[in-house]
Specification:
Length: 261
């Protein structure tokens, strides 16, 4: 379980990126975090994996307090935190399989890691996860030969190969065209549900959030403006999240289509 209590992040330049954020989430939930650019979405994910220290408040993952850890403890804890980036962050010159195997590094024995050797059990997990994202046939292809959609699916396979307690994705489809965005979001949500991992996805396409996630958290200026089911995301709520600068043409759950304001 993830428990965030009264988290604030104030940057040295005085920007208050997160103001008193509190939320709880359970294994198996697939949650979209929406909000306009600068709302604090990336900062929130970065506090959860310890990349961004908090100014006050606490974050616990399965009872362990991430906000109380030192650098070495955070490095260790990150074994259980899968991360998917907008720009994939693959090692371009090696195979899809080798990229996915890097998700097993923390579990590999010292000498195995040094030699880049992964035994049968690690390879079986990597292959299973390539299969989950529909890329078994690409296992031996170099990452730089893959399409954007395939790269992001390799990144998803790598992240779940960590057997994470939580999977964090920061704008995972922002570099993909609309058709591939649907495909990759669909794969991400399906795989997350198959393995039952708590998943937080920062995403700016409200329609994809509504289509694929069970819960929506809307953030505006560092504050949670909405936290609930997709069905509760009314025009008023969207206006609060987007501060009257909401995306146009979004089909809301009641199928009403918002026009430009
Ligand atoms: N390292 C930083 N130093 C100062 N301000 C930052 C830093 N990172 C982010 N910010 C500011 O914090 C706010 C939240 O940013 P961010 O979390 O990246 O928003 P989002 O991901 O929702 O676009 C923005 O005003 C941004 O300019
Ligand atoms: Mg961001």
């Amino acid at each position: 379980m993830l428990e965030i209590n009264n988290v604030r992040v104030t940057f040295p330049n005085g920007v208050e990126a997160l103001k008193n954020i509190s939320l709880k989430a359970q294994a198996g939930e697939v949650i979209a975090i929406i909000g306009r650019s600068g709302a604090g979405k990336s900062t929130l994910l970065r506090t959860i994996n310890g990349l961004q220290p908090v100014s006050s408040g606490t974050i616990r993952l399965d009872g362990e307090e991430i906000t109380a850890m030192n650098a070495a403890q955070i490095r260790k804890a990150r074994r259980y935190i899968g991360f998917v980036w907008q720009e994939y962050n693959l090692v371009e010159r090696v195979s899809a399989m080798t990229n996915v195997l890097t998700g097993r590094l923390a579990y590999n024995s010292g000498i195995g890691s040094l030699l880049g050797y992964f035994d049968r059990s690690h390879r079986a997990i990597a292959l299973k996860n390539l299969e989950r994202v529909g890329l078994l046939h690409r296992a031996q292809n170099r990452a730089d030969r893959l399409s954007g959609g395939e790269k992001q699916r390799v990144a998803i396979a790598r992240a779940i190969s960590q057997e994470p307690k939580i999977l964090l994705a920061d704008e995972p489809v922002a570099s993909l065209d609309p058709e591939l965005s649907v495909q990759v979001m669909s794969d991400l949500a399906r795989v997350a549900r198959e393995i039952g991992v708590l998943t937080l996805i920062n995403i700016h396409q409200v329609e994809l959030a509504l289509q694929f996630c069970d819960r929506i958290i809307g953030i505006a200026q560092g504050v949670v403006e909405y936290d609930g089911e997709p069905a509760g995301l009314t025009a008023d709520v969207l206006d609060r999240i987007y501060r009257f600068d909401r995306p146009t043409g979004v089909k809301l759950p009641d199928q009403a289509v918002l026009l430009s304001v």
